[in-house]
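User: Could you walk me through two proteins back to back? I'd like the raw sequence and the structure tokens for each, with a short line separating them so I can tell where one ends and the next begins.

Assistant: Of course. Protein one, sequence then structure:
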Amino acid sequence: MLKNNSKAIAIVFMIVFIDLVGFGLILPLSSYLAKDFGATGIQIGLLMMIYSLMQFLFSPVWGRLSDRIGRRPIL
């Protein structure tokens, strides 16, 4: 059972790592994206803020839902 838990934890850590790297890659490119799409710095900042806020608010919801119906149907 311990082997299964460490495998699941490794998978979760990898998913979180990929998520954070993806977000970290977008931040330096945001000024170029803003220029291409005609957005202001404030609009890009609001977009990043809303994304982070929604992740913060809905992480517990997804966690509870995952506990209730299982991890596979959620993923």
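----
Protein two, same layout:
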Amino acid sequence: MTKPNPASNTGDSGIALAEAPAAASASVNAAAKVTPAGETPAQQARALLKRLQTQFPAFRDCLPLAIGIDKQLIAELPDISRKVLRIALGIHTNSLRYLRVMEKATHRFDLAGKQADEVTDMHRAHASEILRERFKKDAEQRKAQKAADDAAKAAADAARIHAEKLAQLSEKFSRKK
């Protein structure tokens, strides 16, 4: 984590330190306006993501988002919480659909769906790496689940065979009169 520059009078988030309490209280007030009581931030983020998908072509069409799209969204929708927005953007940008598009994309898009800046090779490679790791992890989980299922089936078969043999032995050696 980088230390804030005391000369700039800003924290890590880039908000001036004198403005931070006001921004935090505004964020809390904005979150109270947007969401019903009792929802977790993840539930709020999913609801916000659905709202963004209906409102903006870049989200609806799952286009690579322009750098700084969060600032555009806050300017466009001042009633949303920064925390919930951050979670919603994380859900969106980590989705398989978005990563697959990002892997092949050449340009990023603004909220209206218009081309913004180019997607760098580094960003395409990062999307490919995340997909590769995710598929590898999924394959390992499927393999582990199959091994566990096979072991459980083998144990059940062994228990069934054991019970049959015990029944045969008890029948053979039981005293019948």
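Confidence is low (pLDDT under 50) at residues 1-35.

Let me know if you want the two compared in more detail.
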